[in-house]
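Handoff note, outgoing to incoming analyst
You'll be picking up this chain. Sequence as last confirmed:
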Amino acid sequence: MAAKKARQKIRNGIILFSFFLFPAIFYYLSPVLILQASSQGIVNGSCLVFLLMFLAALVFGRGFCGWLCPAAGCQEALFLARDKKVTRGDWIKWLIWVPWIGAIVSLAIRAGGYDRIDFLYMTRYGLSVSSVPSLLIYFAVLLLLIVFPGYIFGRRSFCHHLCWKAPFMILGRQVRNHYNWAALQLRSEPEQCKHCHACTEHCPMSLPVEAMVEGNSMENRECILCGCCVDVCRQGAIFFAWDMR
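Most recent structure output, in case you need it:
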């Protein structure tokens, strides 16, 4: 159990550090700058980062969400003030993502396609928040899209309802599942489960983990492979695996 607790301490440290870096890397995760860059035929930093997320999901699923995303550190810190489960609304982010992707494609076509790459597009010395206007935009996004929804609607509401990055990883995972490549995933041994409910109670994404264990089906498109369920299970009924099932 000591090793399991240490793993979550490491994860928490990483996502908090990532959150502290958020002002510096803000533009590399921006859904707006990719529109602006596409209208000029430029492949910008956020475009490349989103592509990398899709590719990484072929192997690690939504591991980025659980281990690296700067919004994760902020959202999980909010658990101290508001620890309410989110049980519905996962479809909302698709209503945002689909027209957004359509707008990107349309703007790129109108620009005659992409003709150059500028990873540092609209940054200053590679830093995102380098002026008062950009600082105000950062705080507006942080409060309106991440902090307030998390406090009002519950655990990691941004991930469930608003995140424009999540669909890239969900689609990447679905491609992996279709071709059944070896990848990091959760596995369960239902006969080991003692129905203590700890896995479900500690899931930061409010997933019905115990039911998933009972059904021996741990695949869920909202799972971020954070390992919280693995690390709170004293019976070893849930574990990480690297296989092709």
